[in-house]
């Protein structure tokens, strides 16, 4: 009997299996391409003969595949659902909240227990203090799993008892990072067009990170309280400045999709009458269906 079974040996799954082994756990692994298990087997991991064998091999089963559809197809394998009885499934694949709730129901109907989580780390960070993993589900199940799961991340956090909380927060963060990555890359394109060093641009933003962190906290409080009035800088001013990026794009002959989208979002909020409010008042138009 292993301590934990890891299903899925992509870069992240392999990193997690490796971290479990490093922490001294007995580990069973399974992957559709068995060759991905070779290096882990050399370190003591046991390769399961199939999905049912992997699930049966340990009281805790950690699943890290590309998405929930793949997870569902794996659990459709012969004997897989029957093997779930009495097992704790920890799903760490990418997806959306309704998929977490659906999978939880499936595992519970099969007689298993279920936790759902989201990874905030690169594979190279797994097993270190830099890694963060957010887990949601019954607290008693999280507490039972914590000694084992702590091998994966220094920042292991119980996000709440609603099974979809961790995934909801992950998707909210993904929205932020999408703008972060696009915004930085577009800024880099401006720098390149103007002959400025992009690494210096990165250093400049890094120096601003304390004030950016303060702004994130401020926006969270403003939106929570609904107190958008009397800002230091009005939404209309930011919207006007962002609108000029379209003119700049034409001048520099670089793509303009990003500034058009950003500018139009702010203009929509201004037309709706929110121009004198906080910048984050754009949520009033973004949250509309």
CATH class of the largest domain: Alpha Beta
The portion of residues assigned to helices is 40-55%
Mean pLDDT: 96
For the CA atoms, what is the radius of gyration? Answer: 23 Å
Give the strand order of the largest sheet, numbering strands 1, 2, ... along the chain: 3-2-1-4-5-6-7-8
Structural class: alpha/beta
CATH architecture descriptor name of the largest domain = 3-Layer(aba) Sandwich
The largest pleated sheet is described as:
8 strands, mixed
Question: Helix tally?
Answer: 13
Note the main attributes of this structure.
13 helices; alpha/beta; N-(1-d-carboxylethyl)-l-norvaline Dehydrogenase, domain 2; eight-stranded mixed beta sheet; 54% helix; Rossmann fold; 289 residues; 8 strands; single chain
Mind explaining what this structure looks like?
The protein is α/β, with parallel strands linked by helices and 289 residues long. It has two domains: 4-161, 3-Layer(aba) Sandwich (Rossmann fold); 168-286, Orthogonal Bundle (N-(1-d-carboxylethyl)-l-norvaline Dehydrogenase, domain 2). Helix content is 54%, strand content 15%. It contains 13 helices and eight strands. It has helices at 11-22, 38-42, 51-56, 68-75, 80-83, 97-109, 139-149, 165-193, 198-207, 209-225, 235-252, 257-274, 283-286; strands at residues 4-7, 27-30, 46-47, 60-63, 88-91, 113-120, 128-136, 153-160. It has an eight-stranded mixed beta sheet with strand order 3-2-1-4-5-6-7-8, with helices on both faces. Helix 11 (235-252) runs antiparallel to helix 12. The longest helix is centred in the middle third of the chain and has 29 residues, at 165-193. The radius of gyration is 23 Å and the shape is elongated. The protein starts with a strand and ends with a helix.
């Amino acid at each position: 009997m292993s301590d934990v079974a890891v299903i899925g040996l992509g870069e992240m799954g392999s990193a997690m299996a490796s971290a479990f082994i490093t922490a001294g756990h007995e580990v069973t692994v399974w992957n559709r391409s068995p060759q991905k298990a070779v290096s882990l087997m050399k370190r003591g991991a046991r390769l399961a003969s199939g999905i049912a064998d992997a699930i049966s091999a340990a009281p805790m089963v950690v699943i890290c595949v590309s998405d929930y559809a793949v997870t569902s197809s794996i659990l459709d394998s012969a004997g897989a659902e029957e093997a779930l009885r009495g097992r704790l499934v920890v799903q760490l694949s990418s997806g959306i909240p309704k998929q977490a709730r659906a999978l939880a129901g499936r595992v519970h109907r099969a007689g298993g227990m279920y936790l759902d989580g989201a990874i905030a780390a690169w594979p190279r960070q797994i097993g270190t203090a830099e890694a963060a993993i957010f887990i949601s589900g019954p607290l008693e199940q999280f507490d039972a799993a914590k000694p084992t799961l702590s091998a994966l991340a220094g920042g292991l956090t119980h996000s709440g008892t609603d099974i979809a909380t961790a995934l909801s927060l992950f998707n909210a963060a993904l929205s932020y990072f999408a703008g972060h990555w696009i915004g930085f890359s577009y800024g880099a394109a401006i720098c390149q067009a103007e002959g400025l060093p992009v690494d210096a641009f990165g250093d400049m933003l890094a120096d601003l990170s304390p004030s950016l962190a303060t702004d994130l906290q401020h926006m969270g409080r403003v939106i929570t309280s609904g107190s958008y009035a009397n800002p230091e800088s009005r939404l209309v001013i930011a919207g006007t400045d962002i609108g000029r990026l379209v003119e700049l794009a034409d001048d520099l002959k670089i793509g303009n999709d990003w500034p058009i989208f950003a500018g139009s979002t702010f203009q929509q909020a201004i037309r709706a009458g929110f121009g004198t409010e906080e910048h984050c008042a754009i949520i009033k138009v973004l949250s509309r269906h």
